[in-house]
Specification:
two-stranded antiparallel sheet; alpha/beta; TIM Barrel; binds iron/sulfur cluster
Length: 295
């Protein structure tokens, strides 16, 4: 048994870039093939996981506005352009090039971070990202959520684990850093199911991980599903135990981007404990400390 040592995103950024780096959530006007072709992921909200973006503005204005706002409050000098809402590679390559170029044209932007799906990354798109990666660091975030077949079907992720990890490998082979999103507490999943998902990210050398608890927003299909099926939701104690257990199998280099959910509080239905992010994080930190003191 060894002590838990996690590589938190803020520490990674400070080591890599010598200062704090701030995220600028952007809305590039994308949609999502999974919502257009079907019903979308079970938990997806109306904003496609982009709860904190300023849409309806050109990218340059979104960036300028946020940099100005952040610079007033903090001494912020370096930023991550983060395309968060929906599927941010779901446009023709020429359009993508224009959108990404606009985002990285501000010299204070030092990382281009793109949230997308593994089935929306053909070779041409990967080539474009690889070219941009020669200028500034590119990260690609993909929602894995689970590797359990019945869960993937239930949440309607819409493509296989093989395709997910194939796309991840192609990106990594081109020097692009990949971040997997995983959910703890999906309907009918055990802790072993969740830990197996985390293990699979490590087996495939995924660079970063975002962990969050399953939460239900009133504007998602999950809201109706929960009210019809009343499946078990994790308590905060269970969730924090699962997360700490997952850290025992993480490679020390894996960058932990998130360890709790980030719901829109105005639309959050359950679980109530997930409203208090700071409390959840402090409980995880307390449990890590307790575990490390025992061994
Ligand atoms: S891939 Fe993302 S945007 Fe698309 S349906 Fe799933 S959660 Fe929503």
């Amino acid at each position: 048994m060894k002590k838990i040592k996690i590589n938190r995103l803020n520490d990674y950024l400070k080591n890599e870039y010598g200062t704090r780096v701030y995220k600028l959530p952007l809305d590039g006007g994308f949609s999502c093939p999974n919502r257009e072709n079907g019903k979308g992921c079970l938990f997806c909200s109306d904003s496609g996981a982009g709860e904190f973006t300023f849409n309806d503005f050109p990218i340059k204005n979104q960036i300028d506005l946020q940099i100005e706002r952040l610079s007033e409050r903090k001494r912020a000098e370096k930023f991550i352009a983060y395309f968060q809402s929906f599927t941010n590679t779901y446009k023709p390559v020429d359009e993508l090039r224009k959108i990404y170029d606009e985002a990285i044209s501000n010299e204070k932007v030092i990382v281009l971070d793109i949230a997308t799906r593994g089935d929306c990354l053909d070779d041409e798109k990967i080539k474009l990202l690889s070219k941009i990666n020669e200028k500034i660091d590119v990260w690609v975030e993909m929602g894995l959520q689970s590797t359990k077949k019945s869960s993937i079907d239930l949440i309607n992720r819409g493509y296989s684990n093989d395709l997910y990890f194939d796309s991840a490998k192609k990106l990594m082979d081109n020097g692009i850093k990949v971040i997997s999103h995983v959910i703890a507490g999906l309907p009918y999943e055990s802790e072993d199911d969740f830990l197996n998902t985390v293990y699979m990210t490590q087996k495939h050398d995924i660079w970063g991980i975002k962990i969050h608890s399953l939460y239900i927003q009133t504007d998602s299909r999950l809201y109706d599903y929960y009210n019809e099926n009343k499946f078990n939701l994790l308590t905060m104690d269970e969730y924090t135990n699962w997360v700490v257990d997952s850290f025992k199998i993480l490679n020390e280099d894996t960058v932990v981007h998130r360890m709790t959910g980030d719901a829109d509080k105005t639309k959050l239905y359950l679980p109530n404990w997930s409203r208090d992010k700071l409390k959840v994080i402090s409980e995880i930190n307390r449990k890590i400390k307790e575990y490390n003191e025992q061994i």
